[in-house]
Design brief:
Belongs to the FAD-binding monooxygenase family. This protein is of the alpha/beta class. It contains 13 helices and 27 strands. The chain folds into two domains: 10-152 and 354-497, FAD/NAD(P)-binding domain (3-Layer(bba) Sandwich), CATH 3.50.50; 157-350, 3-Layer(bba) Sandwich (FAD/NAD(P)-binding domain). Helix 1 runs parallel beside helix 11 and helix 5 packs across helix 10 (308-315). It is globular, with a radius of gyration of 24 Å.
């Protein structure tokens, strides 16, 4: 009788979870700033890229310019500032290969759980090989979650009455069928967010007609797909200098637009409406289909490159209906207004499901953690959880701007711990009853559906989930690593010197 003996657990200094935009960025900064540290990247899927490899629906692209969505250390050379998924994925693959990051990635390794041992001052991580079902263990000094914040295996579809009656093809963009044939067919896209406004003009190129059915309008703003100033700067300066200048310019522009929307929402609404009206046919009901009941940037603005959505509407290949679904039928949907929309294919672009840290079960000395009572420290750690960092980018700007600063600060933190012979680092709340508020001040449906299960943020730095790049430069790049709320210790110290793993904060609002 043979006995299977599990091999000894492999140990690394930093274990990164996820080989998407954030995970590759974290690996680069570790290699650059902490070359003596060992690391590995565990990726549950079979390829790098995360979002940009997972989603395969037509027209998928960024809704941020790639001069800010790209890495600060890796110039974006493609002339398209608003780029398609294939171009972004190629950029990520090139980055991983150029810096040999791809050699540190373990594909089809899905992290199931992670337990922090106060005695050993390290994480023990349980991993499943998705290709074979084999289980293995790893240990690390630091656990870095770069898994994003939504579920990769499941998109969100609300309950629709009578959906089982529909006899056509029903598709969620997150699970786009390979070789879906929509040529010459009537397509109905349910939704009004970034995915919907991306799908509609892309499908309209071949479909008989595409209808976007929205319950509530979104703010939609046309952006040039190419940046003329970037093109000029590339002729005048080196690649690196031109990229840095374009990046800085776009940071200031996007920040300016956001501030305008925050300080003068009525003016911002009027300006967006003005641009929409100019891009649409004479007499088009702009207020019915492009005038949301909320202020600009209470939810993310939807960017459309070169006004492609407006062009499809003007050409008559696409249309928008603003109404509520009463019920699905065999041939489409009936609306509250009594109107019926027939479609050969219905696409439910109805959003995402959030999932914290890739769904990993995280415990401290075997005890479960209630993440909804944890508070974010500098937007990258959680109170009471030692040697754990996570990457969540901006919701009001390019995701990667935040990731770069966060990874730099993480490497500075590691250097500080080495200099002072610390093994353990743990944020602790200044007071157990510190008032808190939701982690993300964002009205998007996918955030609001999950807000009660997410960690929280406090009233001021360092407990804020900052969404201000310029403030974060001062805090993360220039500010000190040490903080009165950040507690350090060495492995083997007595329990009285160890971080308190049970610390929680009151969920009382600020």
């Amino acid at each position: 009788m043979s006995v299977h003996i599990r091999p000894p657990a492999e140990h690394v200094d930093v274990l990164i979870i996820g080989a998407g935009l954030s995970g590759i960025g974290a690996a680069y900064y570790l290699q650059r700033d902490q070359p003596g540290k060992t690391y590995a990247i565990l990726e549950g899927r079979e390829a790098i890229g995360g979002t940009w490899d997972l989603f395969r629906y037509p027209g998928i692209r960024s809704d941020s310019d790639l001069y800010t969505f790209g890495y600060e250390f890796k110039p974006w050379l493609n002339p398209k500032a608003i780029a398609d998924a294939d171009s972004i994925l190629a950029y990520l693959q090139e980055t991983a290969q150029e810096y040999a990051i791809d050699q540190q990635i373990r594909f089809r390794h899905r992290v199931l759980s992670a337990n922090w041992s106060s005695v050993e001052a390290r994480w023990s991580v349980e991993v499943e090989r998705t290709d074979s079902g084999e289980r293995l263990s790893m240990t690390c000094n630091w656990l870095f979650s770069a898994a994003g914040y939504y579920r990769y295996d499941e998109g969100f579809t609300p309950h629709f009455a009578g959906i089982e009656q529909y006899q056509g093809q029903l598709v969620h963009p997150q699970h786009w069928p390979e070789n879906l044939d929509y040529r010459g067919k009537r397509v109905l896209v349910i939704g009004s967010g970034a995915t919907a406004v991306t799908l509609v003009p892309a499908l309209a190129e071949q479909a008989a007609h595409v209808t976007m059915l929205q319950r509530t309008p979104s703010y939609v703003l046309s952006m040039p797909s190419e940046d003329p100033l970037a093109r000029l700067l590339r002729r005048l300066f080196s690649t690196e200098r031109a990229y840095a200048l374009t990046r800085r310019k776009n940071v200031l522009i996007s920040r300016g637009i956001w501030l305008l929307c925050q300080k003068y929402p009525k003016l911002a609404r009027r300006l967006i409406r003005h641009f929409n009206r100019k891009a649409l046919p004479e007499g088009y009901p702009v207020d019915e289909h492009f005038n949301p009941p909320y202020n600009p940037w209470e939810q993310r603005l939807c960017a459309v490159p070169d006004g492609d959505l407006f062009k499809a509407i003007t050409a008559g290949t696409a249309s928008i209906v603003t109404d509520h679904i009463k019920s699905f039928t065999a041939k489409g949907v009936t609306l509250r207004s009594g109107r019926e929309l027939q479609a050969d294919i219905i696409i439910t672009a109805t959003g995402l499901n959030l999932q914290l840290f890739g769904g990993i079960r995280i415990t401290l000395d075997g005890a479960a953690i209630d993440m909804s009572h944890k508070v974010a420290f500098k937007g990258m750690m959680l109170d009471g959880i030692p040697n754990f960092a996570f990457a969540v980018g901006y919701t009001n700007s390019s995701w990667t701007l935040k990731i770069g600063l966060l990874c730099e600060h993480f490497c500075r933190l590691l250097a500080y711990m080495d200099q002072h012979d610390h093994s353990v680092c743990c944020p602790q709340l200044p007071a157990a009853d510190m008032p808190t508020r939701p982690l993300l001040d964002f009205g998007a449906g996918y955030v609001q559906r999950a807000i009660d299960m997410l960690p929280r943020q406090g009233p001021q730095a360092p407990w804020l989930m900052s969404m201000n790049y310029l403030d974060d430069i001062r805090l993360m790049r220039s500010g000190p690593v040490e903080d009165p709320c950040l507690k350090f210790s060495a492995a083997g110290q007595s329990a009285s010197h160890q971080p308190d793993p049970t610390s929680t904060a009151s969920p009382a609002p600020v």
